[in-house]
Amino acid sequence: MTDYEKAIEKMIELFSKDYQFALATCYNNIPSVRFVDAYFDGEAFYIVTYGLSQKVRDVAGNSNVALCGRKAYNFSGIADNIGHPLLPQNAQIRETLIKVFEPWYFEANNEDDSNMCYVKIKPTSGFFHKDGAGYKVNFTEKTVESFPFSGDTGLVEE
After folding, report:
1. pTM of the predicted model over 0.85
2. 98 Cβ contact list (under 8 Å, min separation 6)
């Protein structure tokens, strides 16, 4: 197993659940940030959202985004509105997202609304830490640099 594959395994341990990130988008050179619930499947992060939301409109104009977690995790990537949950190509990820976001998925989302959608974020670079090590990942080149990291960033989760 390569160092990159090991890093992805650690990311799956951390983020293959309902994980809240701040999502940064930019449109017309104006940045915008909001918190979103995301899920990582080993290749991409997924967000359940609404097609008329500001974040989806921003992504349509500029697909470069960033995710930042409260424990100094951060990722840059390319976002894509992959469409409505009931599209045939979204069947597998829909099944997963319903399970992951089970406490609120159907309360917060109306799949009868044609504007409901999923946004897929393919990370290009990022940083995370786990078990005393920091990982700087280049997802495009599939490389990783690891180093000792205490994780004591002084950040406090609410």
Report:
1. yes
2. 105, 106
Task: Tell me the per-residue pLDDT of 3-42, one tens digit each, with 9 for 90 and over.
Answer: 999 999 999 999 999 999 999 999 999 999 999 999 999 9
**Which residues have CB under 8 Å from 114's CB, separation 6+?**
51, 84
Output b/e per residue, 68-78; b: 16+ Cβ within 10 A.
bbeebbbbbbb
Residue 42 makes CB contacts below 8 A (sequence gap 6+) with 8, 11, 12, 16
Would you say the C-alpha torsion 101, 61, 27, 70 has a positive or negative sign?
positive
- The residue written with tokens 């829909």 in the block is 94
In three-state form (DSSP H/G/I as H, E/B as E, the rest C), the secondary structure along 27-60 is ECCEEEEEEEEEEECCCCEEEEEECCCHHHHHHH
